[in-house]
Amino acid sequence: MIDHILISEEAIASRLSVLAREIDAAYEGREIRAVGVLKGSVFFLTDLLKRLTSPVSVDFIQVRSYAGTQSSGNIQLVHDLSMDIEGQDVLLCEDVIDTGLTLRRILELLSSRRPRSLKIAALLKKQLPENAGLKADFLGFTIGPEFVIGYGLDLNERYRNLPHVAVWNPKS
Ligand code: PRP
């Protein structure tokens, strides 16, 4: 069951406003091609993009990596981008960097398509040795290793619509 709220709706909103200002400053008015990693990033991506003043276009990619609460290590491309990204300033938007496998795989794939730039915006990053080498250019919060749900993050497809990020306790 849900153990406790880790990051409130208000804390997310205020952090996203700060991130949006950082992103606008970094791109200096250039058009941003925001790429959301389905499905978890949708809540983060929409709330973040609404705060930007830079021109933005949006696309989505979907890979499959999880079953239950464990990372399976298998990554499969389920849904590819609908637009070419060659020469574009791509901002990859992720809800959480856990092992980092998903992001590494997507970065590899998107870099091969020769974008002008490729940056990462992530709402959450777990503090784990596995993902230590993977740096988000724009990061909301660093969290511990616990399993989290809400604000896009699911447990077997449930709880994505919680307005906050909460810790799931499998034992309680
Ligand atoms: C989750 C999450 C990230 C990824 C992070 O997605 O949204 O994309 O796992 O894990 P990693 O860093 O260990 O690779 P998931 O595959 O569960 O799909 P979802 O977004 O549809 O929930």
Please explain how this structure is put together:
With 172 residues, the protein is α/β, with parallel strands linked by helices. It is 22% helix and 38% strand. The chain has 3 helices and 9 strands. The strands form 2 sheets. A 6-stranded mixed sheet has the order 4-3-2-5-6-7, with helices on both faces. A 3-stranded antiparallel sheet has the order 1-9-8, with helices on one face. Helix 3 links the parallel strand 5 and strand 6. Helix 1 packs across helix 2. The chain is globular and about 50 Å long. The chain starts with a strand and ends with a strand. The model has no long low-confidence stretch (mean pLDDT 93). 1-O-pyrophosphono-5-O-phosphono-alpha-D-ribofuranose binds next to strand 2, strand 3, strand 5 and helix 3.
Secondary structure blueprint with pairings:
Elements: E1 2-7, H1 9-27, E2 32-38, H2 42-49, E3 56-67, E4 70-79, E5 89-97, H3 101-111, E6 117-126, E7 138-143, E8 148-149, E9 165-168
Parallel strand pairs: 2-3, 2-5, 5-6, 6-7
Antiparallel strand pairs: 1-9, 3-4, 8-9
Bound molecules: 1-O-pyrophosphono-5-O-phosphono-alpha-D-ribofuranose (PRP).
The site of 1-O-pyrophosphono-5-O-phosphono-alpha-D-ribofuranose has 19 residues, from strand 2, strand 3, strand 5 and helix 3.
